[in-house]
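G., before I forget:
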Amino acid sequence: MLKDITLGQYFPGNSIAHRLDPRTKILLVTLYIIALFSAKGWMGYAVMAVTLAACVKVSHVGLRALVRGLKPLVFIIAFTGILNMFFTPDTHYLWEWGILRVSVKGIENALFMVIRIMLLVMGTFLMTYTTSPIRLTDGLESLLNPLKKIHVPVHELAMMMAIALRFIPTLIEETDKIMSAQKARGADFDSGNIFQKAKALVPILVPLFISAFRRADELATAMECRCYHGGEGRTKLHVLKYQRRDYVALAGGAVILALVVVLRRLGA
Amino acid sequence: MEPILQVKDLTHTYGAGTPFQRSAVEHMSFDVNEGEFLGIIGHTGSGKSTLIQHLNGLLQPTAGEILLRGKNIWAEPKKIREVRFKVGLVFQYPEYQLFEETVYKDIAFGPANQGKTGDELDHAVREAAKLVGIRDDQLEKSPFELSGGQKRRVALAGVLAMEPEVLVLDEPTAGLDPAGRENLMANIRDYHRNKGKTIILVSHSMDEIARNVDRILVLKNAHVLMQGTPAEVFARGEELLSAGLDVPQITRIAMELKRRGVDIDPAVYTVEALERQLLALRKGGAGC
């Protein structure tokens, strides 16, 4: 049940999308998001959809895996769609009932909104599907490096993120185990009102927190034993280096962003 | 007499319909008799943990069924909690499930879920604490102040307090020092002797199994490889070894003696039994 969470899951592979520098991918996703929010009209969205489709194609990540990633968001997507459909003000309405009013513009808005969220989620998932968490944090650290000048603890933040990502599966497994153990003692997580349900979580949360603290303590000791003392003067095993393909990919991203902005200007 | 638990053609498949599909238990069938001490042994990944989580309905079989006193435990899914009170399962490293402020409250969690209150609850808690050797003055302590071995006893008491008809223990002595192990096993043996309740012990250690149980179930690659009394199982020592499993140290010595031409039965698993055989051999006049 808990194991079905695919958020941020990494599918190992050796496609061009996997081999791109993580910084490139972070930048591309940023460009992609900017482009997505600049897109207006069918042409703009079509360009974004085709871009995503092309990226999915070269990444060898199945479309099914991407669509599965949308599942936890179905409610939010549907909610946004419905809100836009019924509450978009317009001069002419197709259908009216109390405060609910449906206009052509409303339907169009709802569709755009739904497509936009889906493309956004699928685009970012494509990055996490093709980049291991460690490379992702490496990339982020490297991109944020200039902020060190103004005393932002970039290395520490990246390390925290790497550790957090590393322990998500461990904690999920641990939660599963503790839940089973408490169920074996007759714990009931499914019935009762909301207060009873919240109270039923105590037997899971207390052991979970204790074990998280214990793990943190052990990890800190293990890191100190290996002379970890922060980012100062620390070298990397895998040094990030831009390749030709990274420049090509970034150029491609810039072109698509430009295209979408031009389409918006033309009002297509 | 009807067996208290019957496992019939049990199969459990994880991740059915995905590329990660894997059967952890395949067509397992066996009975557990009332009042017996059954040992389950097998490698990591042989399906032990998956199997025992079926016995109290934490996992639902993909195929096959589990009968508790002749009744399918999933006959009424709404009442699966009743099954969990009757088949008490103590997980591996159970000390990590403790959560209450005091030892007393933690032990009371299970019986309170059962609906016990007042004197009945108090009696269940104190009785369980006594069974595992927790002193009265320790009951008001925080469980987190106790040592590792004591925490494990508290967790065990938490299940015993539900007064289950069948007690399932998953590697109860893992990670304890030799003295702690022997202590805990002695508690479990006493419980079995005094209460006459059915116990299923899952273990890695052949010696621990050999010393304690009436009957052994050997699992390999999600199947039941063999079952029988310790003597029957260890008589097939060669087979166990070739399956990559261990035999008790004494059995190993007896097997080696046999191989070197000493005329003894290699299916012994206690020092006393081997001693008896060797002495008998000497009296018989066939010097070694």
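DSSP finds eleven helices and ten strands in chain B. The two ends of chain B are 46 Å apart (CA to CA).

More on Monday.
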